[in-house]
Specification:
With 196 residues, the chain is α/β, with parallel strands linked by helices. It is built from seven helices and nine strands; from the N terminus they run E-E-H-E-H-E-H-E-H-E-E-E-H-E-H-H. The protein has helices at residues 15-26, 36-39, 54-64, 83-94, 121-130, 150-155, 169-174, and strands spanning 9-10, 13-14, 32-33, 45-46, 70-74, 101-106, 109-110, 114-118, 145-149. Strand 6 and strand 7 form a beta hairpin.
Length: 196
């Protein structure tokens, strides 16, 4: 992208602002994982315990800093994710207490940065981080992972378009809000603030 994606402007708002607004529509307890010098003006910041270890390091830091069991991890570069989808993931996670992570898999792609993690997932992540293994989905085993398939998402009224990433200037130029044909409007129960 040539610059910090968090501060890229899409349709008049920085990606970080869009992500925070979305997260705050689901829960009142929201933290940012990153550099306080960059992000403190937006809200509480959690710093990496294992710096420069990519998204897995961020997930680990968020979970170690959390006081709640269920934690929403949301990247700034998926700007079209909806509150209804996040609430759906929260509900599915709450229904499966054995799952340490509830994550969508659309086609062959995991969506680990728009997923619900139990705080205990940090115990799986830490040995990987210490060993220099930073691949998130390598920790998604059958016993601890609840997979939300693309088919389930479609049946629930969601489109894979909601996971559109904005990683390059070309992605940014092509980005557009989902149209009604991409996803159905859904009425969802608002779940209590149990996320980090």
């Amino acid at each position: 992208m040539g610059t910090d994606k968090a501060f890229v402007v899409l349709q008049g708002r920085q990606l970080v602002e869009r992500a925070l607004e979305l997260a705050r529509s689901v829960t009142s307890t929201v933290s940012i994982v990153g550099d306080p010098g960059k992000f403190a003006r937006f809200g509480p910041v959690v710093e990496d315990i294992f710096p420069a270890c990519g998204p897995l390091g961020g997930i680990h830091a968020a979970l170690r800093g959390s006081e709640t069991d269920l934690n929403l991890i949301l990247a700034v570069d998926v700007p079209f994710v909806s509150a209804a989808l996040l609430q759906y993931l929260v509900r599915r996670s709450a229904e499966s207490p054995a799952a340490l992570v509830t994550v969508a898999r659309t086609g062959r792609r995991w969506q680990p940065l728009c997923a619900i993690y139990r705080r205990r997932f940090a115990d799986l992540a830490e040995p990987s981080l210490r060993a220099g293994r930073y691949k998130i989905d390598a920790l998604f085993d059958q016993k601890h992972t609840q997979v939300i398939t693309g088919e389930e998402l479609v049946a629930a009224g969601f489109s894979a378009h909601l996971f559109t990433n904005v990683n390059t200037p070309e992605d940014l130029a092509a980005a557009r809000e989902p149209s009604p044909s991409d996803t159905q409007e859904r009425k969802s129960t608002v779940y209590p603030p149990i996320l980090k």
